[in-house]
Amino acid sequence: MFSPLTRRLIARCIFIIGLLLMFLGSAFLLGTITGASWISVLRAFFFVILGSGCAVLAIKLNKRSLYLFFAGFFMLLGFFLFLSALKIIPVSFSQAWPLISVFSGFALIPAGWHRYGAFRSRYVVPGIAFIILGSVLLIFSFNMVPFSFAHFMMQWWPLLVVLTGLLLVLISLGSKPPVEDTSQNKES
Q1: How far apart are alpha carbons 116 and 64 in whole angstroms?
Q2: 82-107 residue pLDDT tens
Q3: Angstrom distances, CA of residue 147 to CA of 61, 133, 154
Q4: Which of 14, 53, 159, 184 is the most exposed place for a label (fewest CB within 10 A)?
């Protein structure tokens, strides 16, 4: 009736659909128990599924760190939105928007490791910079300091120049110079 390849493809599709339905049903069940709106649960579910799809592409396509970055980013975003919808994290996304920068930093570090098989400053330093930037913006977003971000930038903008220079120095120190070929004899 069906070829073995077609049967395997159908079995995989049924398995994936089954997993999606189990996860979606669990998310809606938790949402109904806690009184969360189904739209916010569906939005969170969409980002988790998008991240899972990127993870599958990262695995299938060998050494695709871009897909791994998006997988980590979308999964972190989806889980945050889901926990926020369930009121486990009692913060709305409109107040916690700097977490996008933090999530980007956390997703960039393993993507760099996946690409090179080791931690490289080319990925680690910008990843840490994104995490720090997001953390600083979160401080202002949650009104933890008595002054505004604009006031902070008007007074402390030279610090931004110093930190940018430090970031560039760290990246340049971490990159390896090109190896010269000294095996050839110079004969004139």
Answers
A1: 11
A2: 888 888 888 877 788 888 899 999 98
A3: 48, 17, 11
A4: 184
| 133-157 pLDDT tens trace | 899 888 888 888 888 878 887 887 7
Instruction: Name the token pair of 32.
Output: 């109904």
> Domain segments of the chain: what residues?
18-146
Q: How far apart are CA 115 and CA 66, in angstroms?
A: 9
Judged against a pLDDT cut of 60, whether residue 7 lies above it is answered with yes
Structure letter (DSSP) for residue 145: S
Residue that is written with structure tokens 């400053």 in the block: 121
Copy the structure tokens of residue 96.
Answer: 């916690």
CB 136 within 8 A of CB 129: no
Question: What is the CA angle 52-90-36, rounded to 5?
Answer: 65
- Dig out the tokens for 157 from the structure: 């903008």
Taking alpha carbons only, the member of 137, 138, 129, 136 closest to residue 104 is: 129
- Give which of 115, 49, 128, 120 is closest to 81, Cα–Cα: 49
Q: How far is 161 from 183, CA to CA, in rounded Å?
A: 43
Q: What is the 3-state secondary structure (H, E, C) of 35-92?
A: CCCHHHHHHHHHHHHHHHHHHHHHHHCCCCHHHHHHHHHHHHHHHHHHHHHCCCCCCC
